[in-house]
C-alpha cells in the first residue's frame, strides 16, 4: 500500500461521487432572488422546465417545484438522508404526520427504513431582499438488517452541533462542525438515529464541515477505525489548499488513507471542506431511484408496496406544503411533540 495519504483526486460533478457506506451527496448553492409573497421567486419562470428544473439559470433552480422551489412529496425506502443547511430554510412534511422548518446551520436526519414519503420545499420568505440557500443532502445506506425498520426523523439544531475552533501558531483559525462522529476537543456528538449505520460504534461514521482562514494550518486526525474506514474530503469552496504537501485545486474530491493524520493548509483564500467517512457496510446495493435495497427482488417489492400503501399515505392537502411566512424554526413530531430551538 502507498504510504502517501492521498489515494485519488477527482473533480467534483453533480452529484458528488461517494463510497460505501455513503450512496449520494448533492451540494445545492442557489442564489434565489426576492420572494413574490407566495414563497416563490419574484421573477419570470419562463425558459425553465418547470417540474424538472435543474438548469442553474441565473444561479438557481426550481428543481421539482412548480411555484415554490424544492422537492414535493416523494418516497424513500432502505437508507437515510442527512440534510445539512448552511444558509436559508427548508420546510419538511412527511407521511408520518411530522413537519419542520429548519436551516441556518441545522441538520435533519431521516431514516427512511421500510418507507416514508416526504417533501422538502425551499420557501422564499423575504420579499425585499435575496433568499440564498446552501445545503448538503447526503444519503447514508442502511445495512440489510435495518432496511425495513420503522421510519424516523431527528433534528440537530445548529447551536447543539459540536464545533471545534482552533488556531495555528500564526493565529489563523480552523472551525470544524461535527454532525456525526467524535472529534477530540469538541463536545460529544449528538446521537444518530438508533437504527442508523452511524449508531454502530464500529462503523466509524463521520460527517464534518471544515472552514479554514487563508493560510490556516490544521491536521486532520486519523480515523478511529484505521485503514478499515473509507474517507473522502471534498474541497468545495476557495481556490486551493495543500493536502499532505500536495496542492489541490477546488472543487475536488480527495480520497484519503483513513489510518493516518493528514495536514491541511489553506491557500490564499478561505477554504471549506466536507468530510465523509465510515467503514463500508460491504453488502450488495440495488437501487432504483428513491429505493435502495440489496436485491432487485427487494426493489420490485418496494415498488409494489409503495403503489399499494403509499407508505402510509400523504396526510397533507398539498404535495408541496409551506409552513407560513414567519421564519421561526421548529419541528413537530408524529406524536405531537414540538421542538422550538429558540425556546
Automatic annotation (TrEMBL):
Organism: Ramlibacter tataouinensis
Classification via CDD domains: cupin_pirin_C
Domain Pirin N-terminal: 64-140
Family according to the record: Belongs to the pirin family.
A Pfam family annotated for this UniProt entry: Pirin_C
UniProt region (Disordered), positions on chain: 317-343
Record-given protein name: Pirin
Location of the Pirin C-terminal domain: 208-312
Amino acid at each position: 500500500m502507498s504510504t502517501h495519504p492521498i489515494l485519488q483526486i477527482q473533480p467534483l460533478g453533480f452529484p458528488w461521487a461517494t463510497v460505501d457506506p455513503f450512496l449520494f451527496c448533492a451540494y445545492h448553492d442557489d442564489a434565489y432572488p426576492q420572494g413574490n409573497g407566495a414563497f416563490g421567486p419574484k421573477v419570470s419562470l419562463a425558459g425553465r422546465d418547470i417540474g424538472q428544473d435543474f438548469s442553474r439559470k441565473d444561479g438557481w433552480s426550481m428543481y421539482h417545484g412548480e411555484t415554490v422551489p424544492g422537492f414535493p412529496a416523494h418516497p424513500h425506502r432502505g437508507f437515510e438522508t442527512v440534510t445539512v443547511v448552511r444558509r436559508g430554510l427548508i420546510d419538511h412534511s412527511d407521511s408520518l404526520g411530522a413537519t419542520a422548518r429548519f436551516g441556518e446551520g441545522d441538520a435533519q436526519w431521516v431514516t427512511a427504513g421500510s418507507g416514508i414519503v416526504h417533501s422538502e420545499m425551499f420557501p422564499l420568505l423575504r420579499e425585499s431582499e435575496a433568499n440564498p440557500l446552501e445545503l448538503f443532502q447526503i444519503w447514508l445506506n442502511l445495512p440489510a438488517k435495518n432496511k425495513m425498520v420503522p421510519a424516523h426523523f431527528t433534528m440537530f439544531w445548529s447551536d447543539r452541533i459540536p464545533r471545534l475552533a482552533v488556531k495555528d501558531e500564526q493565529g489563523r483559525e480552523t472551525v470544524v462542525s461535527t454532525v456525526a462522529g467524535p472529534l477530540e476537543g469538541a463536545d460529544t456528538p449528538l446521537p444518530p438515529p438508533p437504527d442508523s449505520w452511524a449508531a454502530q460504534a464500529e462503523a466509524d461514521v463521520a460527517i464534518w464541515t471544515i472552514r479554514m482562514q487563508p493560510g490556516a494550518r490544521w491536521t486532520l486526525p486519523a480515523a478511529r477505525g484505521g485503514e478499515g474506514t473509507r474517507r473522502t474530503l471534498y474541497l468545495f469552496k476557495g481556490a486551493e489548499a495543500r493536502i499532505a504537501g500536495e496542492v489541490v485545486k477546488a472543487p475536488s474530491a480527495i480520497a484519503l488513507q483513513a489510518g493516518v493524520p493528514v495536514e491541511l493548509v489553506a491557500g490564499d483564500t478561505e477554504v471549506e471542506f466536507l468530510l465523509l467517512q465510515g467503514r463500508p457496510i460491504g453488502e450488495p446495493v440495488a437501487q432504483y431511484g428513491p429505493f435502495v435495497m440489496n436485491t432487485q427482488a427487494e426493489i420490485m417489492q418496494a415498488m409494489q408496496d409503495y403503489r399499494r400503501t403509499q407508505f402510509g399515505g400523504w396526510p397533507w392537502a398539498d404535495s408541496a406544503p409551506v409552513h407560513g411566512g414567519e421564519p421561526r424554526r421548529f419541528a413537530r413530531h408524529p406524536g405531537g411533540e414540538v421542538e422550538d430551538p429558540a425556546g
